[in-house]
Amino acid sequence: MSEKMNEKLIEVKNLKLFFNEGKKNEVKAVNDISFDIYKGETLGLVGESGCGKSTTGRTLIRLYNATDGEVNYRGENVHNVKNKEKTLEFNRRMQMIFQDPYASLNPRMKVVDIIAEGIDLHGLASSKQEREEKVHELLEIVGLNRDHAGRYPHEFSGGQRQRIGIARALAVDPEFIIADEPISALDVSIQAQVVNLMRKLQKDKGLTYLFIAHDLSMVKYISDRIGVMYFGKLVELTTSEELYKNPLHPYTQSLLSSIPFPDPDYERQRVRKTYDPKSHNYTDSDDVKMREVKPGHFVYCSEKEMQEMQKTF
Amino acid sequence: MNNILEVKDLNISFHTYAGEVQAIRGVNFELKKGETLAIVGESGSGKSVTTKSIMRLLPKSNSEIKQGSQILFDGKNLAELSDKAMEKIRGKDISMIFQDPMTSLNPTMKIGKQIAEPLIKHQNFSKAQAKQRALELLELVGLPNPEIRINQYPHQFSGGQRQRIVIAVALACNPKVLIADEPTTALDVTIQAQILDLMKDLQNKIDTSIIFITHDLGVVASVADRVAVMYGGKIVEVGTVDEIFYNSQHPYTWGLISSMPSIDTEDDELFVIPGSPPDLLNPPKGDAFAARNRYAMAIDQSEEPPMFKVSNTHYAATWLLHPDAPEIDPPEAVQRRRKQFPGNVTKGEK
């Protein structure tokens, strides 16, 4: 993975997304965050509900227009694209898998048409037969079979529907997939099936993932690097190993100490930490930003805090 | 006799257009005084139906608790109690916390009134007494400024605060049994940790027995004294929390435990339970789990396994525990866990 990691696929620079901008009820859902996603990696994004992780994912794929900042895909800002052809091209490269497999599939469309919608839109099949063959192939890739093509979404279980959602995303042969809580609506035994499928597809097709979730043990398992968000800010970003072994931001520490693990002995010894954002005591003169505290380990902190963290190594 | 609740041979069916769905097929368990019993299993395994039947909250129009089912509480069989008699128990001796704190409170009622309601109804409190007790309860569940908050409406609270209020309502009459149906599933991990701590703390203070339904094994490890694993409308394994996590015997429990990545799971593939749960319209002959079980034997297809005894507290329904069953190697994650368990037994007695 290391040699692949050098190629930047996506560069997010000072991205902001405010709802109700300038009004009294303005919400700074994403407030000045920057990060890179490298080709072939899985970047996990975690945080509690309302922290802006889904909004970040949706802004990357332009379901929302950024208030400020850039999202560069192979060096081109996706929010600046004006002509239709370019838009289509970006849409082909970037796809999304949604959280709720019950809401994200049109109940009035047959599976074959759901999956082939992208193929039609981008003109990827020259004949009806080719279109059908492609759909059958996709169904088999995600572990369903060709007989399923003629059915409607309600005939499938949650895990099967999520597979259809994945097949739809794969139909246009993307290189980057945003998965917004793809497994949180599924049962434990089915979650493992979907996660294994996503990892297999990544290996076979060299896909890059942004994996948004709040189930931290699964995120650790699937991600190469993890970003932690809190109130619209990215507070920590590093490899998943390092994040679990050596969390530096107090919010990350509190988050990790709250996850119950399926191990009664561990649970009896667990000490929970709480996070109080006031504990930082930042003053106006503190330049609080993302700093590289250790090589590859970024923390949102002030100069003084960074020095204190570095003392502990 | 320290069993506060005993469920014996519980059978429940739903009558649908497609036919009779046998949702619960012979469930037996007991709840001891002061303990937390966790019931785990995937959706459709029957965990919610079991607990709803204890509260007698199943829809009358299409559900049927079969003859011979016993839910013994306080010398009465709840399965046969009249609606009127059940009303005296529900919310007083047995109360329930639901999954979604957004929908289990009445949006048009001040929260103080919602907490006072069971007190006035069941305990003949005066309004003033009930208000006083409501303030105490809000304090108990850790809601700041109860004097002000008591006059507010549910929408003025966050999800975690609402769940605290729901707990306060459930605890108002000091119930003997508290049923918590996925009480933290809708909450964030940090809030979940607070609510779990609160429930453990309250249990120590008021000595209630808790039935805790969840599909999150992490939560089970953190709250449970004993665990019952449900599959296809039956309990397939029951034991203390250590026995289930470190010495499980049923292949379905193995699947559940090893399909979740633990803290130190590395790059290897996750263990997967193939296929999907059984269709309870036509429950399979033999072991309901056989179709998804890689350790299934010929007998699993034809005959249902009885509960084999592993220890005085640990039982599992799998033919693998039969003295004549072949030796097999459970999944690696299970073997790793077994090393943490002293004196483990592999073969049981009937």
Automatic annotation (TrEMBL), chain A:
Keywords: ATP-binding, Nucleotide-binding, Transport. One of its GO terms (molecular function) is ATP binding. SMART domains: AAA. The keyword Membrane does not apply. CDD domains: ABC_NikE_OppD_transporters. SUPFAM superfamilies: P-loop containing nucleoside triphosphate hydrolases. Pfam families: ABC_tran, oligo_HPY. The keyword Mitochondrion does not apply. Residues 12-256 form the ABC transporter domain. One of its GO terms (biological process) is peptide transport. It comes from the Bacteria. InterPro entries: AAA+_ATPase, ABC_transp_ATP-bind, ABC_transporter-like_ATP-bd, ABC_transporter-like_CS, Oligopep_ABC_C, P-loop_NTPase. Belongs to the ABC transporter superfamily. PANTHER family: D,D-DIPEPTIDE TRANSPORT ATP-BINDING PROTEIN DDPF-RELATED, TRANSPORT ATP-BINDING PROTEIN. This is Peptide ABC transporter substrate-binding protein. The lineage of its organism: Bacteria, Bacillati, Bacillota, Bacilli, Bacillales.
UniProtKB/TrEMBL annotation, chain B:
Transmembrane segments: none annotated. SMART domains: AAA. Residues 326-350 are annotated as: Disordered. It is a peripheral membrane protein. The keyword Lyase does not apply. Keywords: ATP-binding, Cell membrane, Membrane, Nucleotide-binding, Transport. GO terms for molecular function: ATP binding; ATP hydrolysis activity. It is found in: Cell membrane. GO terms for cellular component: plasma membrane. Coiled coil: none annotated. The keyword DNA repair does not apply. GO terms for biological process: peptide transport. InterPro entries: AAA+_ATPase (IPR003593), ABC_Ni/Peptide_Import (IPR050388), ABC_transporter-like_ATP-bd (IPR003439), ABC_transporter-like_CS (IPR017871), Oligopep_ABC_C (IPR013563), P-loop_NTPase (IPR027417). Residues 7-257 form the ABC transporter domain. It holds the Pfam family ABC_tran. PANTHER family: DIPEPTIDE TRANSPORT ATP-BINDING PROTEIN DPPD (PTHR43297:SF2), OLIGOPEPTIDE TRANSPORT ATP-BINDING PROTEIN APPD (PTHR43297). Belongs to the ABC transporter superfamily. This is Peptide ABC transporter ATP-binding protein.
